[in-house]
TrEMBL record:
Biased composition (Polar residues): 1-14, 39-50, 90-108
SUPFAM superfamilies in UniProt: Thioredoxin-like (SSF52833)
PANTHER family: DISULFIDE BOND FORMATION PROTEIN D (PTHR13887:SF14), GLUTATHIONE S-TRANSFERASE KAPPA (PTHR13887)
UniProt name for this protein: Protein-disulfide isomerase
Organism name: Microlunatus soli
Pfam family, any one: Thioredoxin_4
Family note: Belongs to the thioredoxin family. DsbA subfamily.
Sequence segments annotated as region (Disordered): 1-55, 90-111
CDD domains according to UniProt: DsbA_family (cd02972)
Amino acid sequence: MPSTRPPSSGGNSSRKNRAGKNLPRNNTARKNQPRPAGATSSARSTQQQARLAEQQADRRRQRLILAAVVVGLVLVVAVAGIGYQAWRTNRSPEAPSAQPTFGPTTISPGKPIVLGEEDAAVTLTLYEDFRCPHCADFTENVGETLTGLQRDGTVKVELYPMSFVDPEHGSRSAANAMACAAEGGRGQQFYAGLFENYGLQWSDQQLIELGTASGLTTPEFGDCVRSMQHRSWIDSITRVAAERKVDQTPTVLINGTIQPKAAEWTPDQVRQAVAAAR
């Protein structure tokens, strides 16, 4: 007889083994089906955005680190600069170079400090401020030449210490101490030391130390500095300069004649001007 088969239950029936148990469905074909193109693009775009965000975050971190390093370096430089400036203005002065000695000078109202031999052939008048940078340049350029002319008796210097630059502190203190030193017979040494140590604040202690280095070792010099003994003389010098319309330092005259470009003189020009005045 022809064999008969059980009726089919359609697509919903499970495959069974010989023992009649259900077999798992084969999903391999479904897994291997390609994803839609839109889903792949979206995933790739999301990954790129994540990488870009990470790169931007890295750059921000690098900029912050660089900024912190720059700020740190600026602070270090600023602190070092402040420290150097404090040391430069508050250090002890160095001893002046070797200078001739001309003896004590009498300090009189409105009268200059005379440095040199009284019978010198040429009188060179100087209006200077010990805190004036141009005066420091002038002395650095031609000071040695002038000292030589003072030493051989050719020139005597009439010094009018001014207080243009720092009238409340260093200029006045240095001018007063200059008068104290001239009274003590070491004016030339002290004058040289003031400009050779240009840039100091010129506290009383610094001025007294410079006096000691210049050969002024008596207590009277220190008392003269601390008490501003010659303050009225400084005021009289300022009045005389105003009356003579001296409005800048250095101002230089030779035998009473103003020298307009003396601030720019070279040593040779000093010698020529002095020779012409003899």
